Amino acid sequence: MENLFARFDKHLTKAGYLAMGGQIVDATIVATPKQRNSDAEKADIKAGKVPDEWQKKPAKLRQKDRDARWTVKFLTAKADEEGKTKQRDIAVPAFRYKNHASIDRRHGFIRRWNVTGASAWDGAQLRNVLDKNNTGSTVWADTAYRSKKE
C-alpha cells in the first residue's frame, strides 16, 4: 500500500499539487449488508476462525463478510414546533466498515486512507492516515482523534 501512496504523491507533485496546506482527517461509516450468522458462527468469526460449515461450501464463504464489525450509531431526536423534544435520542446498532481519510486542505485531494471495521477507534488510525509529505503542520480533526501521544 505504501508503494501506491508513493506513486500517487509523485504524480501529484509532478503536476504541481504540493501538499503544503495542512490536512483534514476524518472517518466515514460505510454500510454493508447485515449478516445472518448463528451464535456459533459469530463466535468463530470473533476468534478469527472460519466456521467449518463455510469451509465445506466455498460459495457461501465468498458471500460472508468476515471483516466488517458492529458499532452503535447515535441518532438525535428532533425538536417539535414548540422547541420541545418529544422523542428520545436512540442508539442504532450497525454492521459496517469505517473509511479513515486524510485530505490535503489546499487542494482537496485524499492523500492517505485506511479501511477498518466500524468498531475501530478513530484515534488509533491517525498515524495510518497522516500524510508525512504534507509540509503544512496543521491538522484539522474532530475530538475522536485526540490523544496524549499525538
UniProtKB/TrEMBL annotation:
What is this protein's record name? Answer: Transposase
Question: What is the species listed in this Swiss-Prot or TrEMBL entry?
Answer: Mesorhizobium delmotii
The taxonomy runs: Bacteria, Pseudomonadati, Pseudomonadota, Alphaproteobacteria, Hyphomicrobiales
